[in-house]
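Data deposition worksheet. Section B asks for the primary sequence of the deposited chain exactly as it was used as input, without tags or linkers unless they were present during the calculation. Section C holds the resulting structure in token form. Section D is free text for depositor observations; keep each observation to a single sentence. Incomplete worksheets are returned to the depositor.
Section A, Depositor: J.P.
Section B:
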Amino acid sequence: AVELALDRLKAQGCPFDRITAISGSGQQHGSVYWTRSGVEALRGLDPTSGRVAEQLKGAFAVAASPIWMDTSTTASCKALTELAGDAMHVA
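Section C:
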């Protein structure tokens, strides 16, 4: 979807050098984790260098971003809750 939107903007002569941010929506309560080089990858996007997905390879720390019901941090959350004393101290 992003590629299609960017292609259409390019066809209409959009001044990409004036764009400072892009926001997207589609999945409720998702998270995206960038690598340290992710910001540089974003800065270096070039419409003449191929697809965005190819240019951003390695920019994300997690290949499949977790959504709100992800349970991959359950053990860490339990450990933090114990460290705080109990769930009421965390709340």
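Section D:
Residues 75 and 81 are 10 Å apart (CA to CA).
The radius of gyration is 19 Å.
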